[in-house]
Design goal:
By secondary structure, the chain is mainly alpha-helical. It contains four helices and two strands, in the order ααββαα. The chain has a two-stranded antiparallel sheet. β1 and β2 form a beta hairpin. α1 runs antiparallel to α4. The longest helix is centred in the last third of the chain and has 40 residues.
Length: 136
């Protein structure tokens, strides 16, 4: 009859003088506390970032798309002169750079006004949670 140790019994030691393996340490019982921050805060932050990216990207890309559409479907408008023989197409092309700067300024403005305060609030609550966890 062969001996088959069950999963509850420790396996037989190879040598009788071999010490028993140490028991794993038991985890400390810590009272469960809800964290101060909520996952809905992160959802609000993601939404604010998404809105910020869309606003800035649509500003720059929308103007460029308008320029391309006018170039393709309204060549008479693009070749008409605006002032002193400057074609409207050239003027619209030169306006692309200020529109890009406007998109960058818009991105920074929405970051400072809407996104950064949300991120700071989430960072503060995470630090508070970390401090509460360290005090336990």
């Amino acid at each position: 009859m062969s001996y088959d140790p069950s999963p509850r019994e420790p396996s037989q030691l190879t040598y009788p003088w071999q010490p028993l393996p140490p028991e794993p340490p038991r985890p400390r019982q810590v009272p469960h506390r809800e964290p101060v921050g909520h996952h809905s805060d992160l959802r609000v932050l993601r939404r604010a970032y998404r809105l910020q990216r869309r606003t800035a990207a649509l500003t720059a890309l929308g103007y460029f798309t308008l320029f391309l559409v006018l170039s393709a479907f309204a060549p008479h408008l693009m070749t008409s002169t605006v002032a002193d023989g400057i074609p409207a197409g050239l003027l619209l092309a030169l306006l692309q750079l200020p529109v890009t700067w406007l998109a960058i300024a818009l991105y920074e403005h929405t970051a400072r006004r809407h996104v950064d305060p949300l991120a700071d609030r989430i960072r503060r609550t995470a630090e508070l949670d970390a401090r509460r966890g360290a005090v336990r």
